Amino acid sequence: MGQTGLWILLAALVAGLAVGLVLRLREGRIRPARPGEDVDPDPSHLPERVAAALGPAVTLVQISTTFCSPCRHTHARLATLAENNDGLRHVDLDVTHEPEIAHQLGVLRTPTTIAYDAAGAELLRVGGVPDADTLLDSLRPHLAPA
Amino acid sequence: MSAGQPVDPRGPRFAAVITTVVLAVVLLTSWWPLLAAQTIVFGIGAFIGLRYAPYAVLYRSLVAPRLGPTAEREAAAPVRFAQGVGFAFALVGTIGYAADVVLLGAIATGFALFAAFLNAAFDFCLGCETYLLLRRFAPGTQTQA
């Protein structure tokens, strides 16, 4: 009986360590769009709130919930980035009460930020708090030269 | 629908460390009154307010004065939501142990420990970031904010 508890304790700690390390590795990493996997290749299938948010060049759509504190850090970082770069727009969608939007976009954790071009095609996505400079570098080809 | 004042982010982290230790002791001893106490601790944080959560009180009176102040603040809603998730697992665990279904008690406690450990060691709030995932499995579940 005590044995069972010990094994479950060890399993929980090992699992926690593994998941924690994987999450730390993936945190803020930029992933190019993967059409057919988490990306619907047809932009006309975008959820209405996302389609309505798209700007003239590149739009960073941040998926957040009320219960997510890294979302707030991400918001501050991306808002500054958009302010300082012409053609870049940042929209923070709180989907706490509309989880189906996240489902449609294949988003499992918050914050996830998806960059769209003007036509609504996904360029890349980032899970966790993104690094502003790296993100900007990846988006530069899609932004008009300043 | 305010969840309360923003908190010093080191407070919830400290609480997660204590929670991890408490849950580990529960798993090693199968002593369910301790898990029942932890369930109440979770419940206070989730449903009454973080100010009154025992580990937060401990943090404010014993730890914070030694660390010095910080300007950093964390919103209360995510932390309270996570406490609510912990409450659910700890409650199932307590019922399991008390009803002598030790395996159920231990597994539920193991999940709670997994989440508390991730928070303590990696500063990753499982309940908060996977809220959408939890909603998908339990669409009716709505914790107060």
Which percent bin holds the helix content of chain A? Answer: 40-55%
The general outline of chain A is elongated
Q: How many strands of chain A?
A: 5
Overall number of domains of chain B: 1
Number of helices of chain B: 7
How would you describe the overall organization of this protein?
The complex is a heterodimer of chains A (146) and B (145). Chain A is an alpha+beta fold and 146 residues long. Chain A has helices at 2-26, 48-53, 69-83, 99-105, 132-139; strands at residues 30-32, 58-64, 88-94, 112-116, 122-127. A five-stranded mixed β-sheet of chain A has the order 1-5-4-2-3. In chain A, helix 3 (69-83) links the parallel strand 2 and strand 3 (88-94). The longest helix of chain A has 25 residues, at 2-26. The radius of gyration of chain A is 18 Å and the shape is elongated. Chain B has 145 residues and is an all-alpha fold. Chain B has one domain (10-137). Helices cover 73% and strands 0% of the residues of chain B. Chain B has helices at residues 10-29, 32-48, 54-67, 76-98, 102-122, 126-129, 131-137. Chain B starts with 9 loop residues before the first helix and ends in an 8-residue tail after the last helix. The model of chain B is unreliable at 141-145 (pLDDT under 50). The A-B interface holds A 1-2, 4-6, 8-9, 11-13, 15-17, 19-20, 23-24, 65-70, 72, 95-96, 99, 102-103, 107-110 and B 9, 24, 26-30, 74-75, 77-79, 81-82, 102-103, 106-107, 109-111, 113-114, 117-118, 121-122, 124-125, 127-133, 135-136, 139, 145.
Summarize the structure.
The complex is a heterodimer of chains A (146) and B (145). By secondary structure, chain A is an alpha+beta fold.
Give the SSE layout.
The complex is a heterodimer of chains A (146) and B (145).
Chain A: H1 2-26, E1 30-32, H2 48-53, E2 58-64, H3 69-83, E3 88-94, H4 99-105, E4 112-116, E5 122-127, H5 132-139
Parallel strand pairs in A: 2-3
Antiparallel strand pairs in A: 1-5, 2-4, 4-5
Chain B: H1 10-29, H2 32-48, H3 54-67, H4 76-98, H5 102-122, H6 126-129, H7 131-137
Helix pairs in contact in B: 1-2, 1-3, 1-5, 2-4, 4-5
